[in-house]
Write a structure and sequence with these properties.
Blueprint lengths: L1 H21 L9 E3 L5 E2 L6 E2 L9 E2 L6 E8 L4 E6 L6 H10 L4 E10 L2 E5 L2 E5 L8 E7 L10 E6 L5 E6 L7 E8 L2 E10 L4 E6 L2 E6 L1 E2 L4 E2 L1 E5 L6 E12 L7 E14 L4 E3 L9 E8 L5 E8 L12 E9 L4 E10 L7 E7 L5 E7 L12 E6 L5 E3 L9 E6 L5 E6 L8 E6 L10 E2 L5 H7 L3 E8 L7 H9 L7 E2 L1
Parallel strand pairs: 1-8, 3-9, 22-36
Antiparallel strand pairs: 2-4, 5-6, 5-7, 7-8, 7-9, 10-11, 10-35, 11-12, 13-14, 14-15, 15-16, 17-18, 19-20, 20-21, 21-22, 23-24, 24-25, 25-26, 27-28, 28-29, 29-30, 31-32, 32-33, 33-34
């Protein structure tokens, strides 16, 4: 009996010693050098960030277990250290380091311990741009991947200096509603509008704290007010009116298709509740969509495609970028439309035009067909130089999966867009720096405090992102009550 006890004891003791030898020391002790970049998630190697952004915390790639030790040194001085199951930097210390090294770089030294062995990987740099972001945060919609019903979803805002997120409005307060198509005026949410689909359909407009809930439909224009964009003066909002349907593919690699049976472009005047419907932008032989004003307010950009029978001809629908003069004094279309970029001649379809606020560029999404590229794997970002008329694919930011909806910061030096590049299923938000010539840096995933845990457990797609100068001052309870009520502000066609 004593022999058995001693054997069991020494076996247990050997196992404890073996585990102790296999365990990581608290900090790297004579790590083995590895001539590779560290396997981290998200991939922040070589990116360019604005000073004051939330820390670039990262985890081990693919959610692997292990310990990580990171030292960050600024080229102009300053140092940070993080150690744990993921790199978790103090927010205030991170801000101080990025401020000290604005216009220079941060060098990351990463050691990872797995199977009891510390390994030191090749250092990488992160550049801190001279160009400030000049925005408080982001607004976006989060929606689950259930297509038949809306489920829980809403509009949210995120403080970009840290990891704080809060709802602007959620449909849990308005059962059965789909909240979408939101936009501020040049990222200023004192002028804010969004559309509501479903049983409580409406278009909500708030200006300087005064909210109005418009009738969802106007029979004179044949539909609802969707896909909005403010005129820089705030006197007008351009909308499209769309008869939209969705269908499901039986083809591997294709999930869902969204298309319009009809669409027109119009301009709404909040002060008079009048809708300007011009025959040049409301034709029967074309689908007009996605209107946006130029920064000087004198041009209206939009997309147009030759009409086809739906659904039979949906793969033959290809949109060009068009423009037409707009008279802000009269609130009227001036002259005839013209084609700005002929995507149809390339066998492609151009959508989601967004002009940079400095007036130099027009960002858009290119796909094989249709007007809803967020479901198209081939969708890419393109940039049109409004000075030279040259357009190019943004190879420096595009991926092999969907790259879609986008918006500019007001200083035209930062861009946010959606992409499925991480997993092919969910759209996530990526940011990139844009120089004065329209060249963009390597995109980076929106930072989260514990990134792998956050994105692995958040089963939502992020879409329709926009920058915001301040938090959106929308009274959620009051807005939900107004949307749920039957009272609506009527609109009239001018």
């Amino acid at each position: 009996m004593a022999y058995r006890w001693n054997t069991t004891f020494w076996n247990l003791w050997a196992m404890v010693c073996l585990l102790a030898c296999a365990a990581c020391t608290a900090t790297p002790d004579h790590p083995t050098a590895v001539d590779e970049l560290p396997p981290i998630y998200p991939d922040y190697t070589g990116v360019t960030i604005p000073q004051g952004l939330a820390p670039l915390n990262f985890s081990l790639a693919n959610g692997e277990e292990g310990r990580i030790d990171v030292v960050v040194k600024g080229a102009k001085g300053g140092e940070l250290h993080a150690n744990g199951t993921f790199a978790d930097f103090d927010v205030d210390d991170w801000h101080a380091l990025t401020l000290q090294n604005k216009g220079s770089k941060l060098t990351f030294t990463v050691c990872i311990c797995r199977d009891g062995q510390w390994r030191r990987y090749r250092d990488f740099d992160v550049w801190v741009s001279d160009d400030d972001l000049e925005e408080w945060g982001l607004t976006y919609r989060r929606i689950p991947p259930g297509y038949e019903v809306y489920g829980k979803m809403g509009l949210y805002e995120r403080d970009l200096s840290n990891f704080d997120e809060q709802p602007i409005i959620e449909n849990t307060a308005i059962p059965g509603a789909c909240l979408n198509c939101h936009v501020s005026n040049r990222t200023d949410p004192t002028q804010f509008t969004f559309h509501v689909r479903g049983d409580h359909g409406a278009t909500v407009i708030q200006q300087q704290g005064v909210m109005e809930v418009l009738q969802s439909r106007n029979d004179s224009i044949g539909g609802s007010l969707v896909y909005p964009y403010w005129h820089p003066t705030g006197k007008y909002v351009a909308y499209s009116t769309n008869r939209t349907n969705q269908s499901f593919h039986a083809v591997a690699g294709e999930r869902i298709e969204v298309f319009d049976h009809a669409s027109d472009v119009l301009v709404y005047c909040p002060a008079t509740h009048e809708i300007l419907s011009d025959s040049a932008l409301a034709t029967t032989d074309h689908f007009e969509n996605y209107p946006v004003f130029s920064p000087d307010g004198k041009t209206l950009y939009y997309c147009a495609a030759e009409a086809r029978e739906i659904p039979e001809g949906y793969k033959d629908i290809r949109y060009n970028l068009c423009k037409v003069a707009f008279d802000p004094e009269k609130g009227a279309i001036a002259g005839m439309p013209d084609t700005l970029f002929n995507a149809r001649a390339m066998g492609k379809s151009a959508n989601h035009p967004r002009p940079s606020y400095d007036g130099r560029f027009l960002l858009f999404t290119m796909s094989d067909y249709g007007c809803f590229p967020i479901w198209h794997k081939e969708a890419d970002q393109w940039l049109l130089d409004l000075q030279t008329g040259e357009a190019r694919a943004l190879d420096e930011v595009n991926s092999t999966d969907t790259d879609s909806y986008h918006n500019w910061s007001t200083n035209s030096r930062w861009m946010v867009f959606t992409s499925r590049r991480s997993n092919g299923y969910y759209t996530q938000l990526f940011l990139t720096h844009v120089d004065k010539n329209g060249r963009m840096t390597k995109p980076f995933l929106l930072p989260q405090r514990n990134p792998w845990e956050y994105y692995d457990e958040t089963l939502y797609s992020f879409n329709t992102p926009d920058f915001t100068k301040t938090p959106v001052a929308l009274d959620r309870r009051k807005a939900a009550q107004a949307i749920s009520a039957e009272s609506r502000v009527a609109t009239k066609v001018k």
